[in-house]
Structure formats: structure tokens, C-alpha cells
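Two entries, shown back to back:
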Amino acid sequence: MTINGLTTKIQIQHTQELNAFRQDITSPPYQAGTATALNTARRSVRMNPVQSVEDGNASLTIVADVQGLAWFTADKGLQGSCITLSIAGHRRATGTRLSLPLAECDAWMEAILGGSWITHVYRSGASPEPGGKLDVASYRLFLDERSNPVAKPKSVVDDSLRRLELS
């Protein structure tokens, strides 16, 4: 199944969960006003476990950490936020870790962030194992102070970030 087909299937099966999760993660992580709030702002949002759309025996845990951009750099005046999304798979029967197809992970990102935001998403961390699978898939999205998606700021140094390209 194509990424678009997977994304559509996810959106149909999980509309309410996606909308609530998206709202939770895209609101600013801090109260505007103080640099201190920007430096220390952080919150985690967890989506209830969902069933994989490609493997009926797998559950997915999706977690987002939302942090002020200043947390990532020496530039403590940098405003905006970074959303780090992670997806891990588990066997439904035993709870043991399970590698996930990269295509499904990418489709979940598109379903969660969608629209024009997906063009600003970066895949983070190690390259997939042979066959396009990952134990944990991580992604980052950078937002300006008005919560608009932006390219990775130059002051954010992370060589593991690669722009997400959906096919």
C-alpha cells in the first residue's frame, strides 16, 4: 500500500484521536513573555495505543515532546518550539518491542501533521534497518513563535535530521 493509501486508512480509522492529539501538540509549550519560560518549557503528550494498520498483531505508542526552541541551542533568545514525535511498536499479545515499517511510520506523521506542515518534518536518528523498518521512529517539526512550521533553525545542531520525503 502507498503512503497516501496508508495515511487515508489511518485518518479514517483514527479521526478523533488524531484531531485531539494534533491539538495537544501544536499549542505553544510555554506562556509567552519570559525567556526563562522558553528555556525550560517542555511537555509530553501521549496518544493512547493504537492498532497498526499494516500488522493486526501490533500496537503503536505515539509520544510527542514539545519544547521551546531555546532548549536546543546556545541562543536562549530563540523563540518558537520543536515537536519531537516518536513511534514505537509492540506485540499486542506480549507487549514486546516490534520493528515497524518505515512507510507506516511516515504515514502516521502525515496523518497527524498533514497538509503543508508535513513538508517541514525531519526524520531523526538512525537510518532504517534493511527492509525499511525501525525499532523507534522519531521525527521533528520546528515552529516559529506563532506556531507556523519553519525549516530547522541554523542554530539547531543535529546531524541526524533528514527532511522527510514522502513518495
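entry 2 starts here
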Amino acid sequence: MSAIIPVIVQLASLAGVKLSPFKAGALVAAILALLVAIVAVTAGVHLYNAGYAAADGAWREKALEAQLAAMRADRDAARAAAADAALREAAITQRAEQERAGTDAYVEQLKKQNEALAVAGKPNACSLTCDDLRGMRIKSSACGPAARAAGAAGADLRARWRPLRKTP
């Protein structure tokens, strides 16, 4: 460093500035200190950015893991819903087949009743019974009320009602 100071003093004198060797040394020390500070700030910024990038990468990784977990949960829920829909479809198909079989049996019964009425000499008579009309929720004056079990829903219980207190 001692060789640099006389060079600085000579360059300053060529420029017309009178500079003492002490001031030249101070100037060199200040420039070195400034360079060290710039390097330190640059290294600090670099470390800060590296830490930020690492933290940001970890955060993004966690966010992607959460999205992946949500997608897997949605996939599992969709599979469960598809399985449930398949079971409901099978149950509905089975019920439809049972109802179709019941309807076919009822149609066959009505055909037999019509054939029996035709054989008996009443071809234009209606083969529907009171139970058939009640099943279709048709009220007919020819059909009386349906037989119900005692105490069933809609039964008249007033006749069996007793007062709570006995009157003298």
C-alpha cells in the first residue's frame, strides 16, 4: 500500500491538486472500506434472496401438496359417489323389474277375470274390484270403507276414550 500512495499524490499533482500523503492514505482506506461495504451488502442481498427463494420454494411445495391432497380427496369422493350411484341404479332396476312383474301379473289376473265374465255371459261387465278402485284412489258408492285394523292410523278412538276423573 505504501507504493500506491506516492502514485496517488503524483496523479493529484498532475491534475493540479495538492494532496498530502496522509490524505492519500485516508482516501485509499475510504475506497477500500467502501468496496468492503459494497461486497458485504451484495453478499447480504444474495443471502436474503437465497433464503427467500428457499422459503418460497417450501411454501409452494406445501401449497402443491395441499392441492394434491384436495384432488385426491375429490377423486375418492367421486369414486364413492359413483359406487353409490351404481348401487342405487341396481336397486332401482330391481324395483322396476319387481313392479313390472307385479303389473304383468295384475294384467293377467284382469284378463282372466274378463274371460271369466265373458264365459259367464257378461261380456260388458267391469272386472275391477273395490280393492282395485281403492288402489287407484277412486271413491265409488258401490264400495264400502276399507277394513282397518283396530287402533290403526285414522281409526275413530273417541268411543274408547275415558275421562281422567270419575264423576260421583
